[in-house]
């Protein structure tokens, strides 16, 4: 909770300082595209993951986020605006020769190495959060955002909607296919129900590179190694 209050305080102070910059009063034109809709595709990483987990990570690990935003230009600064909205953030972590017992009842979440044992040829752990993103935005050409350099910093706060594992196609220890079978198990018991992340974007027109670093941990305290989610990818924005 202290982390959340501190980050929100810093963002509030930044907004106040930026809004006090003395520039000619800006009257925003109506119906300009101001990044009211954002779609993000990312590569996802669990920072500080132990070797026993990271060594089984599949390179296809990825995330996708969709947000609807309200953009409010500062009256005192033509280039700055504040934005907030609502959306869904998802993260999908793929593993080779490993599974996680997310429906277990043990005090700690068990990650099981299956190098020589029957397993699924494809296995992932997925989470989805309902998120409230907040941004301070800079447009180099506020009168024409579609031909503007864009910079944004902010935070997003989320609440966990779903956490599940999914495995496809059973194989034996040598990797030979046994049968087509899909197993999906859902449980939120080991996962942190609240997510707080610091965000940043930089780019031109409708495309920006973005990064998102989770200040809160992926899993609840003491059920697994403390790991933070890092997302790095591309944002498509418009409307």
Protein architecture, described:
The protein has 239 residues and is mainly beta. The chain has one domain. It has two helices and eleven strands; from the N terminus they run H-E-H-E-E-E-E-E-E-E-E-E-E. The protein has an eight-stranded antiparallel beta barrel with strand order 1-2-3-6-7-9-10-11. Strand 7 (149-171) and strand 8 form a beta hairpin. The protein starts with a helix and ends with a strand.
Task: Characterize this entry briefly.
The protein is mainly beta and 239 residues long. 9% of the residues lie in helices and 54% in strands. It contains 2 helices and 11 strands; from the N terminus they run H-E-H-E-E-E-E-E-E-E-E-E-E.
Task: Chart the SSEs and their pairings.
Layout: H1 2-19, E1 37-47, H2 51-54, E2 62-73, E3 80-95, E4 98-100, E5 111-113, E6 119-139, E7 149-171, E8 177-186, E9 194-204, E10 207-214, E11 228-238
Antiparallel strand pairs: 1-2, 1-11, 2-3, 3-6, 4-5, 6-7, 7-8, 7-9, 9-10, 10-11
Q: Which structural class do you get from the secondary structure elements?
A: mainly beta
The count of helical stretches stands at 2
Rg over CA atoms, rounded to whole Å, is 21 Å
User: Main sheet: which strands, in order across?
Assistant: 1-2-3-6-7-9-10-11
* End-to-end distance: 34 Å
**If you average the pLDDT, what whole number results?**
89
> Globular, elongated, flat, extended or rod-shaped: what is the shape?
elongated
Fraction of residues in H or I helices: under 10%
Main pleated sheet: 8 strands, antiparallel, barrel
Strand segment tally: 11
Order of helices and strands: HEHEEEEEEEEEE
Domain count, please report it. Answer: 1
> Which residues sit in consecutive blocks of at least 5 with pLDDT less than 50?
none
């Amino acid at each position: 909770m202290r982390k959340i209050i501190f980050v929100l305080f810093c963002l509030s102070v930044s907004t106040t300082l930026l809004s006090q910059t003395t520039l000619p009063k800006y009257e925003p034109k109506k119906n300009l595209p101001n990044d009211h809709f954002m779609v993000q595709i990312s590569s996802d990483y669990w920072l500080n993951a132990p070797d026993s987990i990271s060594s089984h990570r599949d390179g296809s690990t990825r995330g996708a986020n969709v947000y609807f935003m309200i953009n409010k230009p500062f009256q005192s600064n033509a280039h700055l605006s504040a934005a907030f909205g609502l959306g869904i953030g998802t993260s999908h972590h793929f593993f080779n020769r490993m599974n996680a017992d997310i429906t277990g009842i043990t005090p700690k979440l068990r990650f099981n190495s299956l190098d020589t044992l029957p397993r699924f040829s494809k296995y992932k752990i997925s989470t989805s959060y309902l998120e409230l993103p907040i941004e301070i935005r800079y447009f180099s050409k506020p009168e024409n955002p579609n031909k503007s350099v864009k910079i944004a910093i902010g935070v997003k706060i989320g609440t966990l909607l779903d956490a599940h594992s999914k495995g496809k196609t059973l194989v034996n220890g040598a990797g030979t296919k046994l049968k087509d079978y899909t197993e999906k198990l859902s449980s939120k018991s080991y996962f942190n129900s609240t997510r707080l992340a610091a965000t940043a974007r930089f780019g031109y027109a409708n495309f920006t590179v973005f990064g998102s670093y989770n200040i809160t941990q992926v899993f609840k305290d003491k059920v697994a190694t403390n790991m933070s989610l890092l997302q790095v990818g591309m944002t498509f924005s418009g409307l």
